[in-house]
Design a protein that fits this description.
Helix content is 34%, strand content 15%. With 182 residues, the chain is α+β, with helices and mostly antiparallel strands. A four-stranded antiparallel β-sheet has the order 1-2-4-3. Helix 1 packs across helix 4. Pfam families: DUF2284.
Length: 182
């Protein structure tokens, strides 16, 4: 199956499973990912630094640019969820969870279609646990994922190469971006 068809089918599977129209994605060249140390430094200033099991400083010491090059295909997967001033706080959290669940569903689709080394990275910190991360270990080690930003990828600059722009602060839609690699 062609890589575009695989992505399209994985997206359709996730949209159907999660009953959403807010999900989409597109293929990118791994070589177009922009890695920056300053992106990782932003993690240090996060209020949840050192409390999330899938964020720095609890990530493995991996050469992420090298690791990403080991994959044949890479897709930006994103959600764009409308909000207004009354729903902003809820949508901020819900959009993150929607992207996370969509990426997990897409990983499952890939696994079921002979892509055993598929991996995903979410947009922002993992929010699967409503009451926060476990004190001694991750409560959902098989479902939790690391943020794109934790690897040092400047996802905004990377996507600009594909004419996909996100501005801050968001105006009427919350956009969350992750990566799916296989």
């Amino acid at each position: 199956m062609e890589k575009n068809d695989i992505l399209k089918n994985a997206l359709l599977d996730a949209k159907t499973e999660l009953n959403t129209t807010y999900l989409d994605g597109f293929l990118i060249d791994v070589a177009d990912l922009v890695f920056e140390e300053r992106v990782k430094m932003n993690c240090y200033y996060c209020g949840r630094y050192n409390s999330n099991w899938k964020c720095p400083p609890k990530l493995p010491d991996i050469d992420y640019p090298k690791m990403f090059q080991e994959f044949d295909y890479c897709a930006v997967v994103y959600v764009k969820v409308p909000f207004d001033k009354d729903t902003y706080a809820d949508i901020r959290n819900e959009s993150s969870l929607l992207l996370h669940k969509a990426l997990l569903q897409m990983e499952k689709y890939m696994w079921n279609h002979n892509n055993a080394t598929c991996i995903s990275f979410i947009g922002g910190g993992c929010k699967l646990c409503k009451n926060g991360c476990g004190a001694e270990r991750c409560n959902n080690p098989y479902m939790a994922r690391s943020p794109v930003e934790a690897t040092g990828i400047n996802i905004l600059k990377s996507m600009e190469k594909y004419k996909f722009f996100i501005t801050f602060p968001p105006k009427d839609k919350m956009t969350r971006c992750g990566l799916l690699l296989w």
